[in-house]
Design goal:
single chain; 341 residues; three-stranded parallel sheet; two-stranded antiparallel ribbon; globular
């Protein structure tokens, strides 16, 4: 957010006017934004230079600046972000969409999750688990760009002896045995969910590779998403080029999945806590840690919106940015910021 008063009071002792409980003693002097702001679009919306690519689509975005969280703890706040509840045991948002609207394409999942390429965020699969809904509505995890984007969708490479006819026969036998097993245990949705997942996996063997194949995308589209140079030998330090590449892959995959009837696609940026920071939790150095993530996110999201718009898909696609909480206007250890629900 653009906070001119915070810029004016930069370096002064922080005073919130009431008792404030910090997560990690992050109540140091007021800390102005690390990056400069300037207006973009016809709306004149003030954006930080680190998310400048969003300036090209800023007039398509509605900004809500008065959101609050009920927790300043990652696990609970991320559950609230994903499910609407602070405690585990509730379905993810995409699960409800799948449950309520069903599938458009029977050969692909109705709810797909594209995690950070380094791992899951807080709570892992609980963020997209179906909980008490039928199991088939849980999110399906896909890693675009990997040799095996969907785990165990195809037989392992060592199984060269497996023929297509043999695989079809084994799937038919498994289906019959599963149905017989389920018929003796009526009322257990887990069995039906598992059976449906196997049946969907068989269909996905044909549909998923095509949906995730970027080779037919024109050069200008790959360039739009920052994918024209391909994967590089990235350095060990977090950097904008790497973040742009991996986040751009997920955004392009999301567009292709939506085109093919997937109802709900969830894209994650940043993994769980760890060092060096590869997430949005910089208690130590906001510029170093958040900068590459922000630029990569902005480039991918701007491309995604532009791509949807030019294809006529933006009219019936809702894009929602969420985070578990923000960061304090006060400093922590000089360059970092503490949690701010």
């Amino acid at each position: 957010d653009y906070k001119p008063e915070l810029i004016k009071r930069h370096g002064e002792a922080s005073d919130f006017g009431e008792p404030v409980e910090a997560f990690q003693n992050g109540l140091g002097p007021w800390l102005k934004p690390v990056w400069e702001f300037k207006p973009y679009g016809e709306s004149g919306k003030m954006l930080s230079e680190i998310v400048a690519p969003l300036g090209a689509v800023v007039d398509e975005i509605a900004f809500v600046h008065n959101m609050v969280s009920k927790s300043g703890v990652h696990s609970a706040a991320t559950l609230q972000q994903s499910t609407g509840f602070l405690l585990p045991g509730f379905p993810g948002a995409g699960c409800w969409v799948s449950y309520g609207l069903g599938s458009v394409n029977e050969n692909l999942p109705s709810f797909v999750v594209l995690p950070d390429h380094r791992g899951f965020g807080s709570n892992g699969v609980k963020n997209w688990d179906a909980a008490f809904l039928p199991a088939q509505h849980a999110g399906t995890i896909i890693y675009p760009g990997r040799p095996e984007p969907i785990a165990d969708l195809f037989p392992h490479r060592s199984g060269s002896f497996i023929t297509k006819s043999g695989e079809n026969a084994s799937q038919a036998l498994m289906s019959r045995l599963n149905r017989e097993h389920a018929a003796e245990r009526l009322g257990d949705p887990r069995l039906e969910g598992r059976i449906r997942s196997y049946e969907l996996a068989a269909k996905m063997q044909l549909a998923a590779p095509e949906a995730l194949d970027f080779s037919m995308e024109p050069e200008h589209t790959m360039k739009l998403y920052g994918l024209d140079r391909g994967a590089q030998a990235w350095g060990k330090d977090i950097n904008a080029e790497e973040e742009t590449y991996y986040f751009g892959q997920k955004c392009l995959a999301a567009r292709r999945l939506l085109e093919r009837g997937v109802r709900f696609v969830q894209i994650w940026s940043g993994n769980d806590n760890g060092f060096p920071r590869r997430n949005w939790d910089s208690h130590e150095d906001v510029e170093r840690d958040h900068g590459p993530l922000a630029l990569g996110m902005a480039r991918g999201c701007a491309a995604f919106i532009q791509d949807l718009e030019q294809r006529g898909m933006l009219d019936d696609t809702i894009i929602l940015w969420t985070t578990e909480f923000g960061r304090m206007p006060s400093s922590q250890a000089g360059k970092g910021r503490d949690h701010n629900p």
